[in-house]
Amino acid sequence: MWIDTHCHLDAHEFGADALGVAARAAQAGVSMIVIPAVERANFGVVDSLAHAAPNASYALGIHPIYVPGARDEDLAALRAAVEAAMGDPRFVAIGEIGLDFFIPMLCEPALREKQERFFREQLRIARDFGLPVLTHVRRSQDQVLKHLRQVTPPGGIAHAFNGSEQQAATFIKLGMHLGFGGAMTFTRALQIRRLAAGLPLDRIVLETDAPDISPSWIHPARNSPEQLPAIGAALAGLRGIEVAEVAAAARRSSLAAIPRLAALLA
């Protein structure tokens, strides 16, 4: 059975069909979907959705793209929400958090500083509660690594990894796993495909980032966790191994990256 370690099942693209999407994913062999929050306003939404879908869990965090509109009290609210959720088995991680230096507006000095400040505080929350992090690392791998060295949580995932081999090795050294999904299914994505083929299999986790990052066979249509088994098969093809081996390894890696999933899948 497969684990989708990153899926925005609460996104408006799914609308009223979110539970249907989760059910169809389960029928396709996806035993667990991790739904990360992106802002304070959707903390309750991802919580409720994870409890409504038998094969779902959730993370709480403030996404860097939402940092411009966030306030310092949102960090306090996050800490309080995490403390309240620690007894909930469906709450599994801090995320989606991180840095985004791809969008020009977010690279302006004031917003860059705010992103880094929010990221560091959320890393402290993860460290304080012993939770893994789901990190956004778009055009920001080195800066994310800098903060992970200074405030080190107990593991997690570098979501949609697209860095260098050296950066990958540093994430791994810091106890992180690396997320791969639909991007590696495009033949033109040479660097991502090289990484997926060559990095240690026990440090790779699979994800869809649905409704985004659709695999090549459905692009540009809406992505879905139902696509995860085929994405896993694509990874098996890149590595020249059996799909069953990838499925088993990805499951082990997912449980190592997000240990609280184990109780839900027992």
Instruction: Tell me about the largest β-sheet.
Output: 8 strands, parallel
Strand order of the largest sheet: 1-2-3-4-5-6-7-8
How many H/I helical runs?
Answer: 10
Which topology does CATH recognise? TIM Barrel
CATH architecture: Alpha-Beta Barrel
The first-to-last residue Cα distance is 12 Å
CATH homology group: Metal-dependent hydrolases
Average pLDDT, rounded to a whole number, is 97
Give structural notes.
The structure is a single chain. The chain is of the alpha/beta class and 266 residues long. The chain has a single domain, classed as Metal-dependent hydrolases (TIM Barrel), CATH 3.20.20.140. 43% of the residues lie in helices and 16% in strands. The chain has 10 helices and 8 strands. It has helices at 18-27, 43-52, 72-85, 109-129, 141-150, 165-173, 190-198, 228-239, 243-257, 261-265; strands spanning 2-4, 30-36, 56-60, 91-100, 133-138, 156-159, 176-180, 204-206. Strands 1-2-3-4-5-6-7-8 form an 8-stranded parallel sheet. Helix 4 links the parallel strand 4 and strand 5 (133-138). The protein is globular and about 45 Å long. The chain starts with a strand and ends with a helix. The mean pLDDT is 97.
